[in-house]
């Protein structure tokens, strides 16, 4: 069988493919590359779950195939959970999908925490993953990844806030880990593995 992952982020497709494979599921995962007319769904909901469902519903409707979408972001304790669902757009550099945008977002968080000591630099990545079937049936799961924020960016792997995020019990940032190491413990890894279990239960 086939499912479509509703993302334009090229790093997410191989990750879901690998996780479904490890779960023993023989499912072809397609990105949106083959669907140039797929709607670009604005993330207008106030929650990760709401946005993941919006995207998955739109792509299931467009393709007629089961669709998975995820919405994710960083919640910073000291900033009362911000940037949260605004993580991709935090610095106001709307619409950019370049490393520049990521760098601007990360610098803004570091600036806002300039006076915050190490013991109050806690943060978590959150990922909601939604599966919508052509029948309209919907499933949502969530993954949370606790850690703390550095004062300087370190590492070149990953994307977004990875250069400033150190997982609980680690000394390296997630940008200093291999993709496999990060996926084994990350919010998206947790959510996608939970989704794989859900798919297996569906048969
Ligand atoms: P799609 O919406 O097309 O899937 P996206 O990259 O914009 O792609 P999100 O809407 O889930 O994905 O936005 C997540 C933002 O949160 C992302 O731009 C990063 O700034 C941050 N983020 C999420 N997961 C992250 C991770 O694993 N490492 C670093 N930053 C992350």
Automatic annotation (TrEMBL):
Annotated transmembrane regions: none
An example Gene Ontology molecular-function term: ITP diphosphatase activity
Active site: 71
Enzyme Commission number(s) of this protein: 3.6.1.66
Keyword presence, Magnesium: yes
Reactions accelerated catalytically: dITP + H2O = dIMP + diphosphate + H(+); XTP + H2O = XMP + diphosphate + H(+); ITP + H2O = IMP + diphosphate + H(+)
Superkingdom to which the source organism belongs: Bacteria
PANTHER family, alphabetized: INOSINE TRIPHOSPHATE PYROPHOSPHATASE, INOSINE TRIPHOSPHATE PYROPHOSPHATASE/HAM1 PROTEIN
Name of the protein described by the UniProt record: dITP/XTP pyrophosphatase
Organism (species): Thermobifida cellulosilytica TB100
């Amino acid at each position: 069988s086939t499912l479509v992952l509703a993302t334009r982020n090229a790093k997410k497709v191989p990750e879901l493919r690998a996780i479904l494979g490890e779960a023993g599921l023989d499912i072809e995962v397609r990105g949106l590359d083959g669907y140039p007319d797929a709607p670009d769904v604005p993330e207008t909901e106030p929650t990760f779950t709401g946005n993941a469902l919006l995207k998955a519903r739109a792509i299931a409707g467009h393709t007629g195939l089961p669709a998975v979408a995820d919405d994710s972001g960083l919640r910073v304790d000291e900033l009362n959970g911000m940037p949260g669902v605004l993580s991709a757009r935090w610095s106001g550099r709307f619409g950019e999908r370049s490393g520049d945008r990521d760098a601007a977002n990360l610098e803004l968080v570091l600036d806002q925490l300039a006076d915050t000591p190490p013991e109050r630099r806690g943060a978590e990545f959150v990922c909601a993953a939604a599966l919508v079937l052509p029948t309209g049936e919907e499933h949502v799961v969530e993954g949370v990844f606790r850690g703390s924020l550095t004062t300087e960016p370190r590492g070149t792997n990953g994307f977004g806030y990875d250069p400033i995020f150190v997982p609980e019990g680690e000394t390296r940032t997630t940008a200093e880990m291999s993709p496999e190491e990060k996926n084994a413990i990350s919010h998206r890894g947790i959510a996608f593995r939970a989704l794989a279990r859900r798919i297996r239960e569906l048969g």
